[in-house]
Every structure is written in C-alpha cells, then in structure tokens.
Design a protein that fits this description.
This protein is mainly alpha-helical and about 180 residues long. The radius of gyration is 17 Å and the shape is globular.
Length: about 180
C-alpha cells in the first residue's frame, strides 16, 4: 500500500485539500455499521432513483419517453465523464493508501465521480418536469446519499463527488429545459 504522507507532500493544493477533507469526514473507516450502510448505498442506490424516475415520468405528458430520455442523457453524461476521468487520471483514495478498497473497485481514475454525474444528470433533467417538492427532495437525497457512500467507502474524494454532482445537474438541467413541459 502506498505511503499517504509521501503522496501528500507531492500533491497539488487541490488534492491536499481533498485529502484533508476526506480525513476530516472520517471516510474510509469508522463503525462497521456505517461502512456496511455505505457499501449498500454505493452499490444499490440506483434502484430508488429509478423508482423516482418512473414516478416523475408516468404522469408527465411525455410519459415513459421522459424516463427514456432522462436515462439516455444520464448515460451520455456518464460516458463523457469517463473520458474526462481517463484524461485527468486522478487516483482514488484507496489507490493512494488512504483506506481499504471497501467496494473492490478497479484502479481506474475517479475524477469526476461517474455515480455523481449520473445522479446529478437525472436530477437535473427531471427538475423542470416535476411539480412535487417531495419527489425532488427524494431524488436529491438519493444523489447526496450516494455521494456520501462513495466517499465513505474510499471510492472517491469529496471533490470528485461535488464536481460530478455539479456537472451532472448543470448538464441535466440544460437538457431537461429543452424537453416539452
């Protein structure tokens, strides 16, 4: 396992801040129950989000087409994010020796978080098409919970998730606003 102190001394100010924040949040360690919950959320939070997509799409004028457009856009955003991650080659916390690999992840680059991009894109696309504050709050809670889980399990740094959510919401909102209301 790499020595995190060596990594820190050679890190950019951005990465030093991210590593400091990661440690302050207690990510990558903690009570077994919190890690178990984080692993479950990191792996399975797409299910409640999919249910919320259906709940927003069904009463909408576009119906199931809205769900299909939303998921297609989120997939395209994910592909773009993976290209960005390959270009930037930012290591994940577990790959830097800051914690164990709680998700059994491969070592591919982690900035921006693909999960956060997708969740943000879904939220952004559907935001203009739901009149229900409860559904918006539920989608935001799933996205934020997934972000917490990805950080807590050491798959991402906090700024990987924050950037992914911001880019995802912005791109999703831009796409969602051009769809018929």
């Amino acid at each position: 396992m790499p020595d995190p102190t060596l990594t820190l001394s050679h890190a950019s100010p951005w990465l030093r801040f991210d590593m400091w924040l990661f440690r302050r949040l207690g990510a990558g360690r903690g009570p077994a129950a919190a890690l178990t919950l984080a692993r479950l959320m990191a792996r399975w939070s797409w299910l409640p989000l999919l249910v919320l997509v259906v709940l927003v799409a069904l009463p909408h004028r576009l119906g199931p087409a809205l769900a299909l457009l939303c998921l297609t856009w989120a997939g395209l955003v994910q592909l773009a994010g993976k290209r960005l991650a390959r270009r930037w080659q930012a290591q994940r916390p577990f790959a830097m020796g800051l914690c164990a690999n709680h998700l059994g992840h491969g070592g591919r680059a982690g900035f921006p978080s693909s999960h956060a991009l997708v969740m943000g894109a879904v939220l952004g696309v559907l935001l203009p098409h739901t009149g229900s504050g409860a559904l918006v709050a539920a989608m935001a809670a799933v996205a934020l919970g997934t972000g917490w889980a990805r950080v807590h399990t050491g798959a991402h740094f906090p700024l990987d998730v924050a950037a992914g959510l911001a880019l995802g919401v912005a791109s999703g909102l831009a796409f969602g606003l051009v769809l018929p209301a």
